[in-house]
Design brief:
Elements (H helix, E strand, L loop, with lengths): L12 H15 L8 H20 L5 H16 L2 H9 L3 H7 L10 H37 L4 H18 L3 H12 L6 H14 L2 H14 L4 H14 L3 H14 L4 H13 L3 H15 L4 H15 L17
């Protein structure tokens, strides 16, 4: 039958085991290059003490629980111990100086190296998997859902036009639009750009012809023609032309939020923040139900202008045309 060991005498093996456990529990949280050898050899001593006391059929359940907890901590957080050993010359040197050094705590450097290797391998495997999935997904999407060639061409054309507009190279921009129109003859956006660049160059007849073609192409949505024309004129800094397009859009559809958004942009570009705020407010009200994204953008623009010095607006007023 197991029996409890009397612990009142401090020099008993049982008391010595408790003292060793106390010391090991203190050292494990502050082990360094100076205390690492003492700590590792203390673990050897505790292991030996358990072996001897278990042979005497002692009741070691409380102490065994402490020992298991200590070993679990060492196993789960080996890096501080390995670092301390490195400061003291490395685990190889410590093992050679303290034979037989067979217990696992003398080989924590190997365990740390193995864990780091597995961690790196998992990270590399995960990264490779992500790259493979991304590449396969990209080609799969392009294979099963190929991009619209017209959309791709328009994106590339728009990017090129941005540079030409920035340089005020109207002839170059017109030449590009005509070249792309040869491939996309029914694209209304290109028709409108042709109109705008001809206006910039003073080619009124050519601009009129392009305008008629664009209005015919957008006959089912006439307000969209004026909005697109106004935005295009605004991009080439033709504020008056953009304003005129917006006012024509109001005549066609006084409830189209994009028209008010266009006029708000014109007013903002002209430095009339109060009018721009009113237009953006009207845009938000009209777009709230069927174009929430535009409503949000309009509120953001309005909020930015309200923070600008001198931006006095009359929220109650409802703009119908640029003053």
């Amino acid at each position: 039958m197991a029996y409890s060991v009397e612990t009142n005498t401090t020099n008993t093996p049982f008391a010595q085991l408790r003292e060793s456990l106390d010391k090991a529990e203190r050292l494990v949280v502050q082990v360094d290059g100076k205390s690492i050898v003492e700590f590792l050899t203390l673990l050897d001593s505790i292991e030996q003490q358990f072996t001897e006391l278990e042979a005497s059929d002692s009741d070691l359940r409380p102490e065994q629980s402490r020992w298991d907890s200590l070993l679990s901590r060492i196993n789960s957080k080996p890096d501080p111990i390995v670092h301390a050993a490195h400061v003291a010359g490395g685990m190889d040197k410590l093992r050679a100086a303290n034979p037989p050094a067979e217990s696992f705590w003398w080989h924590l450097d190997q365990e740390v190296a193995k864990r780091r290797f597995h961690a790196v391998r998992r990270a590399v495997t995960t990264l490779v998997a992500i790259v493979v999935v991304a590449v396969v997904g990209y080609y799969a999407i392009n294979y099963f859902f190929p991009p619209d060639p017209e959309a791709v061409m328009m994106v590339e054309t728009t990017n090129s036009l941005d540079h030409l507009i920035e340089a005020s190279n109207w002839q170059g921009a017109l030449d590009l639009v005509k070249a792309v129109r040869a491939q996309l003859p029914n694209n209304a956006e290109l028709m409108i750009w042709e109109e705008v660049f001809n206006e910039r160059l003073g080619n009124q007849e050519a601009a009129k012809t392009a305008s008629e073609e664009a209005q015919k192409a957008l006959a089912s949505t006439p307000a969209l023609y004026w909005v697109t024309l106004g935005n295009s004129r605004l991009r080439v800094n033709d504020l008056q032309g953009a304003k005129d397009a917006g006012e024509q859009g109001l005549k066609v559809d006084p409830n189209e939020p994009q028209v008010y958004f266009l006029l708000g942009g014109v007013a903002e570009s002209a430095g009339d923040n109060a009018t721009a705020i009113n237009y953006f407010q009207k845009t938000s009200e009209l777009a709230e139900g069927n174009n929430p994204q535009l409503a949000v953008i309009a509120r953001v623009r309005m909020g930015q202008l309200l923070q600008s010095p001198g931006s006095l607006a009359s929220p109650a007023s409802t703009p119908t045309a640029m003053p």
